[in-house]
Design brief:
Layout lengths: L16 H5 L6 H23 L9 E6 L3 H18 L3 E5 H13 L6 E6 L4 E8 L2 E7 L5 H11 L6 H9 L24 H12 L13 H30 L3 E5 L6 H14 L2 E4 L2 H4 L8 H7 L19
Parallel strand pairs: 1-2, 3-6, 6-7
Antiparallel strand pairs: 3-4, 4-5
Bound molecules: 5'-O-[(R)-(carboxyoxy)(hydroxy)phosphoryl]adenosine and zinc ion (ZN).
C-alpha cells in the first residue's frame, strides 16, 4: 500500500531571503508582512502543483509553534479560514518536530526511537525521540543557535546572508586548523550548547581585541577562507561532540538530524563519521528537506491519525517549551 505520509505532491517555498539580506538576519515585522502577501499565492501554487483542488483536501496542517509570532499567526489564520469554509480538521504541527520528521520521510521506514538533533536559524536542540509525536527536549543552546552563529560570523567576515551556505563555500578554500577557536561547553556536563563565544572569537579576529594592541591581520580572501573554515570546524566539533554524548547517554541506535544547518556538507560528513565510530545509524534528510520547506507538514498525517486536531480557537506558541 502506498504510504500517504511519504508522498510529496508539492512543496512551495516562498523565500524571503532578499528582504532580510541587507539586515544580516530576519526582521520579524518584515517577515510577518511578507507572509501576509505570500500566503494566498503560495496556497494556489501548492494546489496547482499537486494537481488538486480544495475539494480533494482531507485536513489542513499548520505550524503553530515555535517561531515568530506574527508569521505563525498569518499561517494559522489562513489554515483556520480554509477549515471553517470547508469543514476540515485543523492539525497543529510543531516546527521542530516537523524538521525531525523529514528524516522519517527520507528514510522511508520507521526511525524511532532515536536521538534528534535540530540545528536551525532559531534553534539548536537535542531530543529524546520516542516516536513521531513524542519528543523530549534533553539539551539546547544557552545563547545563540548554530544557524544564527553562522549568520553572524558571515556578517563579520563580509559574506552574504544566509551565512551558512556562504561560510560553507568560503571554507572550502580555507584551512580548518588555521585559526585557534574555542569549542564552548565541549566538556561540560549535560547536553546543552553555547555558540555566542565562538561568534565573539571571530569578532576579535576581525576587529581586534578591545584594549589590546595585538595586530589584526588584513582580511584577504585567504584569511576569510581560513576564518570561515576554522569557524565551521569549531561549530561542527560542538555539534558532533554533544550528539555523541546524547547517543551514549540515551542509548538509542539512531541519530536524526534536521534544520537548515544540517544542509552543511562537512557537518553531514562529520556526523556520519561519528555515527560510524559509535556504531549508530545516521538519518539526515537531503539538503533541500533540511532547510524550511512545506513537505515537513507531513507530520500532520501522524497527528491526524492520532486524533490530535485543534479547534478554531487554536493559538500559536512562539517560544520553545522544555518538556521532560
Ligand atoms: O531550518 P531553517 O531553514 O530555518 C529556521 O527554522 O531557522 O534554518 C536556517 C538556518 C540559517 O541560519 C542558515 O544560515 C542555516 O540554516 N544554513 C546553513 C546551511 N544552509 C542553511 N548553515 C550551515 N551550512 C549550510 N549549508
Ligand atoms: Zn526551520
Amino acid at each position: 500500500m502506498i504510504d500517504r505520509r511519504l508522498i510529496v505532491r508539492s512543496s512551495v517555498v516562498a523565500s524571503q531571503i532578499d528582504l532580510h539580506a541587507e539586515f544580516g538576519g530576519i526582521v520579524p515585522e518584515i517577515a510577518s508582512r511578507a507572509h501576509l502577501t505570500a500566503i494566498l499565492p503560495v496556497l494556489d501554487q501548492a494546489l496547482a502543483d499537486a494537481n488538486v483542488t480544495l475539494d480533494d483536501i482531507a485536513a489542513v496542517a499548520v505550524v503553530t509553534e515555535p517561531g515568530l509570532v506574527g508569521s505563525l499567526l498569518v499561517g494559522l489564520t489562513a489554515a483556520k479560514a480554509i477549515c471553517l469554509a470547508r469543514r476540515l480538521p485543523l492539525v497543529p504541527v510543531h516546527h521542530i518536530e516537523a524538521h525531525l520528521y523529514a528524516c522519517r520521510m527520507a528514510a522511508g521506514e520507521d526511525v524511532f526511537p532515536a536521538v534528534g538533533l535540530v540545528v536551525s536559524g532559531g534553534h539548536t536542540s537535542l531530543y529524546d525521540c520516542r516516536g513521531p509525536l513524542d519528543h523530549r527536549l534533553v539539551g539546547s543552546t544557552i545563547d545563540d543557535a548554530a544557524g544564527e552563529a553562522f549568520d553572524k560570523a558571515a556578517q563579520l567576515l563580509g559574506l552574504g546572508f544566509p551565512g551558512g551556505p556562504e561560510i560553507e563555500q568560503a571554507a572550502a578554500a580555507g584551512r580548518p586548523g588555521a585559526v585557534p577557536l574555542p569549542r564552548p561547553m565541549q566538556d561540560a556536563p549535560g547536553l546543552d550548547f553555547s555558540f555566542s563565544g565562538l561568534k565573539t572569537a571571530i569578532r576579535y579576529q576581525v576587529q581586534g581585541v578591545p584594549g589590546s594592541d595585538r595586530e589584526v591581520l588584513p582580511m584577504t580572501p585567504e584569511r576569510i577562507a581560513d576564518l570561515a573554515a576554522s569557524f565551521q570546524a569549531a561549530v561542527i566539533d560542538c555539534l558532533v561532540g554533544r550528539s555523541r554524548r546524547a547517543l551514549r547517554s540515551l542509548g538509542h541506535q539512531r541519530l536524526l538530524v534536521g534544520g537548515g544547518v544540517a544542509a552543511n556538507g562537512p557537518l553531514r560528513e562529520a556526523l556520519g563519521q561519528m555515527c560510524h565510530e559509535e556504531q549508530k545509524v545516521l538519518h539526515v534528510a537531503p539538503p533541500e528537506m533540511c532547510t524550511d520547506n512545506a513537505a515537513m507538514a507531513a507530520l500532520g498525517w501522524e497527528r491526524l491519525d492520532a486524533g490530535l486536531t485543534a479547534g478554531l480557537d487554536a493559538d500559536v506558541t512562539p517560544g520553545l517549551i522544555r518538556r521532560k
